[in-house]
Amino acid sequence: MSDVRQHADDIHEQFSDHIDVSVEDVEERLTTLVDEYKVPIDEARRSVTNHYLEEAGLEREDISGGDSEAANIEDVDEPEEWIDLTAKVIELWDPRSDSVAQVGLLGDPTGTIKFTKWAKSELPALEEGGVYELRNVVTDEYQGRYSVKLNSTTVIEELDEDLEVGNDTSEIEGALVDMQSGSGLIKRCPEDDCTRVLQNGRCNEHGEVEGEFDLRIKAVVDDGIDAHEVIFDKDATEELTGLSLEEAKEMAMDALDTTIVADEISEDIVGTYYRIEGPTFGRYVLADDVEELGGPADPEELLIKARSM
Ligand SMILES: [Zn+2]
């Protein structure tokens, strides 16, 4: 089967339930783009898919990406992948948008992940504590955190069994070799449930807002094998540095400059060895429990090593 024909087959399968279109029609559109307009096949596929989405009045989330594969939660590390999960509903949260029917946390033996179920998907309600086989869910990523979306192509089957939910806590022992920008005294958007970090007084979503001060550290910790990105929230930062949010605000006010806080913190922690424990969210470890360890510390040398990885 030709490459174009295979893509045509895939696209046809995605839309066959929604609109009356033949494989030949799809193939012809692809061929025209590829042969006459010299469009790369991936781009042609996107373009033809968009055409049929529009024709069917559907959104990208409404069609499946082809064959979904059984996956474990810990393996989710790419957006836009179509997977099958067997998972337990650990928690349900209040949806904050009318377009969302249910939102919450799923768990399997390898970890936990947020899920969102669209209102228009008209899927049955998931119960807290229930174990389900969820076929054809699509992965998503936001700021390094992964989630799965249940959509109109998702098939939900309730299983009559319990499922042990794994602890996805990470433990890292190593040197804190770098502190990243966006650390120290920051301002967050005060809008409900937003909490985005402001850039020059602006929230990406809500524009110019009166920010609320917060303390945070984004750091790189090198355990000798890997470099891990670790986030310390306000409590963890206060514990790590002995500097409270109030003290940090005073320090910044005295200096008329918030960056002094990050500078002070950096001086204090870069090059120090820590044992850090906390849950993993995407590529980040959220520091829950931190212990300072003794150990050799030559930040320059460690930094060179970390950057060479
Ligand atoms: Zn905002």
TrEMBL record:
The keyword DNA repair does not apply. CDD domains: SoSSB_OBF. Gene3D superfamilies: Nucleic acid-binding proteins (2.40.50.140). Keywords: DNA-binding. SUPFAM superfamilies: Nucleic acid-binding proteins. GO terms for molecular function: DNA binding. PANTHER family: OB FOLD NUCLEIC ACID BINDING PROTEIN-RELATED, REPLICATION PROTEIN A. This is Replication factor A.
